[in-house]
TrEMBL record:
Residues 77-113 are annotated as: Disordered. Residues 78-95, 103-113 have a biased composition (Low complexity). This is Uncharacterized protein.
Amino acid sequence: MVKTNYSGLNPVVVQALNNLQYRYSDETPEMWCSRVLNNIEEACRNEFSRINVVIKNLQNEINQHYAIVQRSNFDQRSVSNESEANSTNESETNSRGSLTNPSSSSSGSSGSSQKFANIISVIRKQFTDIFDRIKGANDYSLDQMCGIVSVDILSRLEMGVIGKDTIKGFYHGENLNSKNLEKIGAWIDNTHLHRY
C-alpha cells in the first residue's frame, strides 16, 4: 500500500488519515472524503425533508384553524346583520299595520335564499377588495390577476382548478357554484393570512 504524503498537516490528523487509509485500503483519501461527505449530505437532506413535511403540516393546520375563526367571525357578522335587517323589516311592517301580508307564508324559503345571497355578496365584496388591492399594487391587468388567483387556488391551496373566466365572471357579479365559492373563500382566507 502506498502512503500518501500529508506534509504540512497536523501530525494527529496525519495519523488519523493513515489509520483510515488502512481501513479503506481500496479507497484513496479523496474517494473516502467524498463518500463521507455524500453520506453526510444525504443524511442532512433526509432530515430537512422531514422538517419540511412537519412545517407544511403545521402551515396546513394553522390555515385550517384560521379559516374556522374567519368563518366563525363571518357567521357572527351575518347573524348580526340579519337580525338588524329583520328588526328593521318588522318595525316597518308594524308601522304600516300590515301584519297579515300574504307573502309572509313564503318567508321561510326566501329568508334562507336571502341569507345565502347575503353571504355571497359579503364574499364577493371581500374578494373584490383584496383582488383590486393586489391588482393595483402590482399594476396587473384583470386577466393577469384572474390568472394569479386561479394558479394560487390550484397550486398553493391545492383545491383544484377554477378557470380564469369563472373568476372574472364572479368579479363582475356572476354567481358561482358552491364548490367554486368555497375555493374563492379559501383564497380570501389564505390571502388575509399571508397579507399580500
